[in-house]
């Protein structure tokens, strides 16, 4: 699977975001032979200040943001995953949308673990999604979806792997702060090592967020990593590499403690 990870810094102007996303994605095209393009959490519209009304700016799944992703997915010829705020009758969902290369909305994942931590309370502004791992097939590979704070809950990653995921995709707006970059890198590589999966993480950059979008292989090695600036990093995720890692390190099959429903 050929992937492109798009790091950017969103604004609280949704129309300006759409324009800047289109300009950034112009660097990608059908000649790149991509299967998957991943944008960060809140790519549609930044979280803004704690009193910024996200319900007022949330969009439906057939709104202008998803339409932009559909246009770009068709143009590039790849599946696009990106984060948005999804309109409801009450608090919006923090939603990942998966748009296929035909421009059709294939799947959504509504963030399960809301960021009520480090002095912030996302649950004041968002509704949590149902506790159900979401795995979607992309280019013949099963891909599990997580969003930002979900990364701190290894049981979700393991649930995705138990549902068949070989790749974890993690769009994020990982807030900057003391030790936060160390947490980001450590948790991403840990999820790769303990589950013997590829991890593809697209983060918001700029002044407020940690940036450092990266791709990790099933050994936990970082294949490529951005810094804070807008960037597109690329990687090839070979199924043979995952199979080899699981053959050498069969920790998943060696488990003796398993979840029982």
Question: What do these coordinates show?
Answer:
The protein is an alpha/beta fold and 261 residues long. It has a single domain, classed as Carbon-nitrogen hydrolase (Nitrilase/N-carbamoyl-D-aminoacid amidohydrolase), CATH 3.60.110. The chain has helices at 14-25, 54-57, 64-76, 154-162, 180-195, 239-248, and strands at residues 2-7, 36-38, 79-86, 93-99, 105-110, 135-138, 141-145, 167-172, 198-203, 214-216, 222-225, 231-236. The strands form two sheets. Strands 5-4-3-2-1-12 form a six-stranded mixed beta sheet. Strands 6-7-8-9-10-11 form a six-stranded mixed beta sheet, with helices on one face. This is Hydrolase. Belongs to the carbon-nitrogen hydrolase superfamily. NIT1/NIT2 family. One of its GO terms (molecular function) is hydrolase activity. It holds the Pfam family CN_hydrolase.
Brief summary of the model shown:
Helix content is 25%, strand content 25%.
Attribute tags:
261 residues; Nitrilase/N-carbamoyl-D-aminoacid amidohydrolase; six-stranded mixed sheet; 6 helices; 12 strands; 25% helix; 25% strand
Summarize the SSE layout with pairings:
Layout: E1 2-7, H1 14-25, E2 36-38, H2 54-57, H3 64-76, E3 79-86, E4 93-99, E5 105-110, E6 135-138, E7 141-145, H4 154-162, E8 167-172, H5 180-195, E9 198-203, E10 214-216, E11 222-225, E12 231-236, H6 239-248
Parallel strand pairs: 1-2, 2-3, 7-8, 8-9
Antiparallel strand pairs: 1-12, 3-4, 4-5, 6-7, 9-10, 10-11
